[in-house]
Write a structure and sequence with these properties.
four-stranded antiparallel beta sheet; about 20% helix; 2 helices; 7 strands; Immunoglobulin-like; alpha+beta; three-stranded antiparallel beta sheet; about 140 residues
């Protein structure tokens, strides 16, 4: 065993010496991967949810929203839409569907000009378990 180690070490040293003497340069290649802007803002991955979308359009007539959440094995989706203006609570709406999707829209009460954020905090259930979902959207008027 010692003779094999010595042979390997001497062969390796000889190879390095030959490469050094003959002017051959060996470099390791660095493979860089730089994420694009869209890849840097990837949505969270969910186990059961295949699609989740939330939209918000605030005007003098209120905060119009639409929400869509879907998953093949989902049996129930429930949660609360909460509207904030400049970080302060404005209004909310409870959503619950015994289905594999929520696809609804409506209007929440708004309170004048400002920056609004709509957040949906909910849970989706399946026969095999459940997971939470939080999605948000912003708008100003």
């Amino acid at each position: 065993m010692n003779s094999i180690k010595r042979l390997f070490i001497s062969t390796t040293l000889a190879s390095i010496s030959i490469c050094s003497l003959s002017g051959i340069q060996v470099f390791a290649q660095d493979n860089f991967y730089e994420a694009t802007i869209t890849e840097q803002s990837v949505m969270p991955r969910y186990k059961y949810i295949t699609s989740a979308e939330l939209s918000l359009n605030v005007s003098s007539s209120g905060a119009k929203y639409s929400i869509y959440i879907q998953g093949d094995s989902i049996t129930k989706i429930s949660g609360t839409l909460t509207l904030y203006k400049n970080g302060e609570y404005v209004s909310s709406k409870r959503i619950s569907e015994n289905s594999n999707k929520v696809d609804t829209s409506g209007t929440l009460t708004a309170s004048g000009r400002g920056s609004y954020e709509l957040i949906f905090n909910g849970t989706v259930s399946t026969r095999n378990g459940s997971e939470t979902i939080t999605i948000s959207e912003t708008d100003s008027y």
